[in-house]
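Hi support team,

I've been running sequence recovery on a batch of backbones for a student project. Most finish fine, but this one hangs at about 90% for roughly twenty minutes before it completes. I'm not sure whether the input is malformed or the queue is just slow. I've pasted the structure tokens below so you can try to reproduce it. Let me know if you need the job ID as well.

Thanks,
M.K.
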């Protein structure tokens, strides 16, 4: 029951935060969105897990930056607060970016698009995964 409520609050918070940014950093939507996210995460994963995650020694600087961003949003400085939040979250989860990027590059359509934007010619490699594997010796060799 707590997990459903936490997931609902987290989803509502993300939606309100997105809408607040789309409406040119509407402070009220961002405030309510931040509050929903702050309440929803501990309900979803549990307060002990949240405490262990955010207070880990390697993440304390990022946690402080995100907290400052949340306080700035609540105090009526939404643009600066969102910048702090984004910077803190990138510091907190930045080490996961190479893994996520590698997984996205292996996806069929999206991986091809990313390879095209990188300027690499991975066309042969990306199309090879769709072709059936050849069996037996090559045709141009004598048996």
């Amino acid at each position: 029951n707590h997990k459903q409520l936490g997931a609902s609050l987290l989803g509502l918070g993300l939606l309100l935060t997105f809408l607040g940014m789309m409406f040119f950093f509407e402070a009220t939507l961002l405030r309510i969105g931040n509050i929903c996210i702050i309440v929803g995460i501990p309900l979803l994963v549990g307060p002990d897990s949240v405490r262990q995650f955010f207070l880990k020694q390697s993440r304390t600087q990022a946690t402080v930056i995100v907290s400052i961003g949340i306080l700035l949003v609540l105090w009526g400085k939404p643009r600066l607060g969102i910048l702090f939040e984004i910077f803190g979250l990138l510091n907190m989860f930045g080490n996961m970016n190479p893994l996520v990027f590698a997984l996205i590059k292996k996806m069929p359509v999206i991986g091809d698009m990313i390879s095209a934007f990188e300027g690499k010619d991975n066309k042969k490699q990306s199309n090879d995964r769709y072709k059936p594997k050849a069996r037996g010796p090559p045709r141009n060799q004598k048996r």
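--
Follow-up from support: It reproduced on our side and the slowdown came from queue contention, not your input. The mean pLDDT is 88. No action needed from you.
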